[in-house]
Write the structure tokens for this entry.
Amino acid sequence: MQPPVASPPPIFQRCDRCARYPYRLREYLGRALWEIVQATLIRYSPRRASGWRNAWLRLFGATMHPGSAIRPTTRIWHPWLLEVGAHTTLADGVTVYNLGPVRIGEHSVISQDVYLCAGTHDYRQPHLPLIRSPIVIEGGVWVCARAFIGPGVTLGRNAIVGACSVVMRDVRTGMIVAGNPAREVRPRFEAELDVADETDAGSHRGERQAA
Ligand SMILES: CC(C)(COP(=O)(O)OP(=O)(O)OC[C@H]1O[C@@H](n2cnc3c(N)ncnc32)[C@H](O)[C@@H]1OP(=O)(O)O)[C@@H](O)C(=O)NCCC(=O)NCCS
């Protein structure tokens, strides 16, 4: 005798009930214009023309501090939700999927093909409403190649995220994390003193020599 075939559970999520236009009209218009600019004037700009790219980003509402740079193949969804600190670079192939705000501090490096994902869906509701959670990357952070940074994550000052890591939780100040899911490897510095020594080296070297 054949065992009874269990009927599959009913499908919970209803894609036909998802909001078809979850953004304001202004955002759709801005994004359409930005996509044209990004696919042409940004994409085919000379590699070193970061001033040109920053000017376009600022025109579309991004906050680009002096010395910050994106590369021609960096992809940004909503420039008006992006802030990049002084002397911070977003490398080739980086995707900033900034449905929510993305704020990156000064002297940070976002290496090749990193994915910053500042958005998700509430899967507990059948119509999967959009959640636009911010990402904050503080100053002095290095996000190594191909890492994925999830919605709502904060990377503390001076942290390092290893290559190809998946980060779904906040990273503590000065910590190296790696793997999927990313786990703490070790602190970047032996002690807080190391940071002070390095950053103040220029200003204190003279004093030490004088003493
Ligand atoms: C994160 C990183 C900088 C750390 O370098 P490091 O201090 O020399 O680290 P180590 O090689 O001593 O590794 C320490 C431990 O973390 C692990 N680890 C390091 N990076 C890892 C990664 N990306 N994913 C998973 N585990 C990793 C190592 O396997 C090692 O584990 P073990 O102690 O069990 O053997 C480096 O591993 C990295 O990811 N570099 C990426 C370079 C890059 O992106 N270049 C392109 C842009 S310029």
Summary: The helical segments are 25-42, 50-59, 192-199, 201-210.
